[in-house]
Structure formats: structure tokens, C-alpha cells
């Protein structure tokens, strides 16, 4: 029985890497689920079966939480990229044009010596 923990460094997880991590975790989830189903057919006493079922359920829950965390991080990364693109677009459209401005007082004052 094996437990793996998926970790990602902040801001550097690529979509391909996290997709690969999710695929590995889904495979592990399937294996744990199959093992859980097989416990009923195993030749061991009821207490041992119950303990094994609890352990497998806890492992399954951990893997599900890891998958959910990766998916949440992917959604946050996408939202951040979208926000950055929108901010960049706004900064491009906010460049002031000098032709539409009203001249200030300094431009209309006559000076006499």
C-alpha cells in the first residue's frame, strides 16, 4: 500500500504538470478503491477488516483532497492570468491623449514686460 502526496511550488505549477499529477492521483484512487472492494473477500477476522477499511477510506479521502487542491489551484491560476490580461488591457486604454485635453491657464496667459 502506497500513499503519495502531491505538492506544488507556488506560481510555478504548469497546467501540464498538474494535469499529470491529477492523472497519477486518479490512478491511485482507482487502485485504493479496488483494494477497498477486495477487503470483503480477504481471509481475516472482522476487526482486522474493519481497521483495513478505515485505513483505505482515509487514504482515499486524502487522495480526493489532493485532487481537489490541484484543481482549485488550477482555477486560481487561470483567474490570475485572466485578471492580469484585463489589467494589461486597461492600462493600454488609459494612456492619456494630449489632443483631447483642455489647456491649462499657463497656456492662455499673455505676459508683458
Explain what this protein looks like in three dimensions:
It contains two helices and no strands. It has helices at 15-38, 46-93. 64% of the residues lie in helices and 0% in strands. It has a domain at 15-81. The radius of gyration is 30 Å and the shape is rod-shaped. The longest helix is centred in the middle third of the chain and has 48 residues, at 46-93. It has 113 residues and is mostly helical.
Fold blueprint:
Elements: H1 15-38, H2 46-93
In short:
This protein has 113 residues and is an all-alpha fold. The chain has helices at 15-38, 46-93.
Characteristic terms for this protein:
rod-shaped, single chain, 113 residues, mainly alpha
**Assembly context of the chains:** single chain
Estimate what percentage of residues fall within beta strands.
Answer: under 5%
Indicate the percent of residues in helices. Answer: 55-70%
* Rg over C-alpha atoms, rounded to the nearest angstrom: 30 Å
Instruction: Provide the low-confidence segments as ranges.
Output: 6-13
The largest sheet, given as strand count, sense and whether it forms a barrel, is: none
Q: Report, as a whole number of angstroms, the end-to-end distance.
A: 96 Å
The computed structural class is mainly alpha
Number of strands: 0
Global outline: rod-shaped
Order of helices and strands: HH
- How many helices? 2
Mean pLDDT: 82
Amino acid at each position: 500500500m502506497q500513499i503519495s502526496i502531491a505538492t506544488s511550488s507556488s506560481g510555478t505549477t504548469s497546467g501540464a504538470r498538474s494535469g499529470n499529477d491529477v492523472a497519477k492521483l486518479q490512478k491511485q484512487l482507482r487502485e485504493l478503491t479496488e483494494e477497498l472492494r477486495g477487503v470483503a473477500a480477504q481471509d481475516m477476522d472482522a476487526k482486522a477488516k474493519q481497521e483495513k477499511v478505515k485505513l483505505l477510506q482515509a487514504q482515499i479521502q486524502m487522495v480526493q483532497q489532493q485532487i481537489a487542491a490541484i484543481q482549485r489551484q488550477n482555477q486560481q491560476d487561470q483567474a490570475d492570468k485572466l485578471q492580469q490580461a484585463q489589467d494589461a488591457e486597461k492600462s493600454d486604454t488609459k494612456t492619456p491623449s494630449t489632443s483631447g485635453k483642455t489647456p491649462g491657464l499657463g497656456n492662455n496667459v499673455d505676459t508683458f514686460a
